[in-house]
Automatic annotation (TrEMBL):
It is found in: Cell membrane; Membrane. It comes from Croceitalea dokdonensis DOKDO 023. The chain crosses the membrane at residues 47-68, 150-174, 194-217. Pfam families: MotA_ExbB. Residues 108-228 form the MotA/TolQ/ExbB proton channel domain. This is MotA/TolQ/ExbB proton channel. Its main location: membrane. InterPro entries: ExbB/TolQ_transport, MotA_ExbB_proton_chnl. Residues 1-23 form the signal peptide. One of its GO terms (biological process) is protein import. The lineage of its organism: Bacteria, Pseudomonadati, Bacteroidota, Flavobacteriia, Flavobacteriales.
Length: 243
């Protein structure tokens, strides 16, 4: 019985040691793979040439900065408009226009700002309030779309810069062929590879920024639709309150 216990303990230690060694080996292989990927990416970037690859990288960095800033702004601008409309309606019924304006002051977002402008002009008439809502809605829409045009510019420029680098690389390759007078694949393979790398990185940059751009545009459309629907609801509430 004692021998069996010793054998089981030995086997357990062997299995535990083997498992630990395997885990360490897998972790080491994963680190080597990650290192190899980043090293290859760095080498390919350097081979593409600093002139065009640097500009493409700058487009990626600036585009990501604009995209992150817009995403943060739009998320902060998103509010629960249904809850706000109910609060404004209750405030109008209980405390009048001033109470409703106070609710809008304490609420962030473009919908609350539009509500405040409409409530502030309601004393001049319902038509004046409606004009204020429409005008300030345009102002808020401009704030939502701020800097988005720069993002679309980077999306367009990045692949174009990549293509330009490719064309220049091909021109250099053909100039080398003309100078040597012999069409050899090994002679121009390196130049063509470098030329194509700029296109690859340009397309990767455009794809990444395009995903962010589509998300931002969808977010803006959702907020604008919410603003328009809420503006109509506000005018209806003001008309009912006037009666």
């Amino acid at each position: 019985m004692k021998k069996i216990s010793v054998s089981l303990a030995t086997a357990g230690m062997f299995i535990l040691g083997t498992g630990t060694a395997s885990a360490a080996l897998l972790q080491e292989e994963g680190a080597e793979t990650s290192k190899a990927f980043t090293q290859v990416l760095k080498e390919q970037f350097i081979q593409g040439g600093p002139a065009f690859m640097g500009i493409v990288l700058l487009c990626l960095i600036l585009g990501l900065a604009v995209a992150i800033e817009r995403i943060i702004y739009l998320n902060l601008a998103s509010t629960n408009s249904s809850k706000l409309k109910q609060q404004v309606e209750d405030a109008l019924a209980s405390g009048g226009v001033e109470a409703a304006k106070e609710v809008c002051r304490n609420t962030k977002g473009p919908v609350a700002s539009i509500f405040y402008q409409g409530l502030d002009r309601v004393g001049e008439g319902l038509e004046s309030a409606e004009k204020a809502v429409v005008s300030y809605g345009g102002v808020q829409m401009g704030q939502l779309e701020k800097n988005v045009s720069w993002l679309s510019l980077f999306i367009a420029i990045a692949p174009m810069l990549g293509f330009m680098g490719t064309v220049i690389g091909m021109i250099q390759a053909f100039q080398k062929i003309a100078a040597v007078g012999n069409l050899s694949a090994s002679l121009i393979a390196g130049d063509i590879q470098v030329a194509l790398l700029t296109t690859v990185f340009g397309l990767i940059t455009a794809i990444i920024l395009q995903i962010f751009y589509n998300y931002i545009i969808a977010k803006i459309d959702g907020i604008v639709n919410d603003m328009e629907d809420s503006s109509i609801s506000l005018i209806d509430m003001l008309a009912a309150h006037k009666k």
